[in-house]
Structure formats: structure tokens, C-alpha cells
Amino acid sequence: LETTRLESEWLTDRPLLESTVDGLRQHAATLEEKRDHVKASTARDRDETETMKAKNHAAGEDLSEVDSRLRALSKNLVELRLSLPPRLSEALDLLYRSLGAAELAPGERMQVAMTMLNRCAQFNRTVTYGEDVLSIDGEGGKKSLEVIYWGLSHAYALDRAASKAWYGAPGPKGWQWEPLPDKTWAVAQLIAVYSDRADPSFVSVPATLGNPVAEPAK
After folding, report:
1. Inter-axis angle of helices 106-124 and 2-80, nearest 10
2. Can you count the helices (H) and strands (E) in the chain?
3. 159 in helix, strand or coil?
4. How many CB atoms lie within 10 A of CB 138?
5. pLDDT tens-place string over residues 31-43
6. Are 192 and 176 in contact (CB under 8 A)?
């Protein structure tokens, strides 16, 4: 009796189950067609996405290399500061502070470094005169002196009241001032000619050639 009942129920439910299975198969086939269509239509987009990923990866590596070079350049600029003329070094103080910020973005670091290099190049192309407050060894603290700079190479400082003059140039320990005991008048005359307080004339003042040209081989 139980077997007969189960067979009767199976015969009753079988058409419904078969219909459900057929419906599910048709739905699965429809979904597969949609999947294939989406794959075909997005193939180009996926290829472009992969290409962009590769480009982004390459750009990231390039950016990392640029950042490393910028940090090396920043380090060189910081080391260079000791050898800069005092006036230029003081004028670049704000830029040096910005350059020392660890959170500075590569683009901003590049901008700061290029600004500093341009300022140095501009200073190097001109003769600059003015009054600077300097600390000179053996002079007992800071003094206000008249200074005329020959670009980045050297400078002459004058203390008119004390009748003293100095020669300044980059040295092993940075910018250094050396006394010119016999050239006070010459430095004063040089400044006077530059400032149009004296008629143009040749003035003999000492200078040191930092990198002398080697003699040609014989």
C-alpha cells in the first residue's frame, strides 16, 4: 500500500518537477547567453583596464625613482648651503625649510629644488653689493659690513670704520673669510666704482682660482 501511494504521488508530481527542471535549464541557458554577451562586449574594456594597470605600475616605479633622485638632490642642496655666499644662503632660508619637510610631495619637492637652483644660477651671473651682518673669526661677534659678491665664487667685505677688509670664498668647511690687511683701500675703491661713487677704473684685488686649468701636456 505504501509503495502504491509513493508511486501515485510520484506520477502526480513528476510533470511539475520535470517542468521546473526544464524551466531552470532554460533560465540557465539564458544566463549563459547573457554572460557570453557581457564577456564579448566588455573584452575591450577589460583589455584597456589591464593596459592601464600596467601603465600605472610603470608610472609608480618611475615616480619612486624620481622621488629617490629628488631626495638625493635635496641632500646635495643642503650640503651645498655651507658653501653658498651668506647673503644667498639667508635668502634661501625659507626654501631650505620647505625642502627639509619629510611630507613634501615629489612635485612640490621638484618645484622647490628648481627654484633654489634658479636662484643660485641667477646670483652666480651677477655682481651683488649691499650690507650684510656677518660673523668673522677673530672679530668678536657679528658685524655689519659692506660686501660685494662676485657670483658664487668669491666676495670682498669692508669695515670702513675699522679700515679692514676680507676676502670670502667657499672652503673645505664652507664659506670662509680671510683678512686682506693691505687691500682695504682697493676694496673700498672697488665698491665706490661699482656704486658710481667714483670714476670707472681698473682696481686690483686678489682672487683665488678654485679649479685651475691644468697645463697642456708637452
Report:
1. 10
2. 5, 5
3. strand
4. 6
5. 888 888 888 778 7
6. no
What order do you get walking across the sheet with 164-171 strand by strand?
127-135, 142-150, 154-159, 164-171, 174-179
> How far is it, in rounded angstroms, from Cα 204 to Cα 190?
9
Concatenated DSSP letters of 77-135: HHHHGGGS-HHHHHHTHHHHHHHT-TT--HHHHHHHHHHHHHHHHHHHTSEEEEEEEEE
Residues 6+ apart with CB under 8 A from 63: 106
Q: Distance between CA atoms of 142 and 119, rounded to whole angstroms? A: 26
CB contact at 8 A, 178 and 154? no
pLDDT, tens only, 156-210: 999 999 999 999 999 888 899 999 988 999 999 999 999 999 898 898 888 887 6
